[in-house]
Design brief:
about 90 residues; alpha+beta; about 40% helix; globular
């Protein structure tokens, strides 16, 4: 875990002396698929709230039928992570 955090592939934040890892990066059996690739593409200066908002807000570039999905929902559904990575690089 520490290596993933050091590489910014897994996001963690220091709150007082404790390191906190946002739970949305996990699913029942480990890491959310491709979350490490997306996190590595994101700016390193996102605070916890901004990170959560970005992952949880529907993005019109991530359409599924007539509905826009959030980056988190996109990854949870097992879709190709490349569109999410491209959006992350633009932030």
């Amino acid at each position: 875990m520490r290596q993933l955090i050091a590489q910014r592939a897994l996001r963690a934040f220091r709150i007082q002396r404790n390191l906190r890892i946002p739970l949305f990066q996990f699913q029942q059996r480990g890491l959310l698929p491709n979350v490490t690739r997306v996190n590595a593409a994101l700016s390193g200066d996102l605070d916890p709230v901004s990170l959560w908002r970005w992952y949880s807000t529907p993005d019109p570039e991530l359409e599924s039928g007539e509905e826009a999905l959030s980056p988190l929902a996109w990854l949870q559904s097992g879709r190709d992570p490349e569109p999410v990575i491209a959006i992350a690089r633009q932030l």
